[in-house]
C-alpha cells in the first residue's frame, strides 16, 4: 500500500504539473506586445502604415447601414467586437455600432496561435494584411489583454470606478504635457472631458496608446490607475 500511495501522489503531481506546463504567468507576458496589439485592434492599418482595404469586410453585416459600406471602419476589430471586446453582449449591443457579432472575450486566456489561425483564415482575411509579428501582437492582446470591465466601469451609468483626486495627480504628471491642464489639446481632437461618454474607448487608449501617435501605454501599470485618470477626466471641460 505504501508504494501504491506514493505512486498515486507522484501521478497526481505529474498531472497537475502537466496542466500548468503551458500556462503563462503574468510576469512572463510581453506587455509591450499586448499594448501594440491593442493599437492594432483599434486601427491596425494606421499602426503598420498600410492602405485601407478598398472593399468592405466580408463578415460585416449589411444591416448596419452606417458602416456596411465603410471599409475604413468595418475592417477595424473594435468595430465588430467593441472596445470592451464583448460584441453583441457589451456596449455595442445597440446603437450606431451594433452588428450582432459576438465578442472576443471567450478567447481570453487561450492560445495566441489559435487566434492567429482565426485571423488568417479566409473569413477574417488578415493573413495578407499584416505581418506575422503584427498578427502575434494582436493575438497577444486578445488572449492576454482583455480586462474585467465591471471592475473599472459601471456599464449602466458609464461612470468610471476610480478616485478623481488620485487620477488628477497622474494626469498632471503623465498626460497634461500633451493634452493640457484642461484636456483641450491637441487642438485637432475633441476635449478629453467630452469623450467620457465612451469610457471603454478611453480606457482602451489609456492602456494601449493611440495608433500612430506618441501616446504612452499604461498597460503595465495597475489598471486602477487608468480608472482613476478616467474619473478625473469626467471633471474636465467638455467644450
UniProtKB/TrEMBL annotation:
Signal peptide stretch: 1-26
Coiled coil: none
Source organism, top-level taxon: Bacteria
Keywords from the named record: Heme, Iron, Metal-binding, Signal
Molecular function GO terms recorded: electron transfer activity; heme binding; metal ion binding
Keyword presence, Metal-binding: yes
Cytochrome c domain ranges (all copies): 32-146, 162-237
InterPro entries xref list: Cyt_c-like_dom, Cyt_c-like_dom_sf, Cytochrome_c_Oxidase_Subunit
Protein name according to UniProt: C-type cytochrome
Lineage summary: Bacteria, Pseudomonadati, Pseudomonadota, Alphaproteobacteria, Rhodobacterales
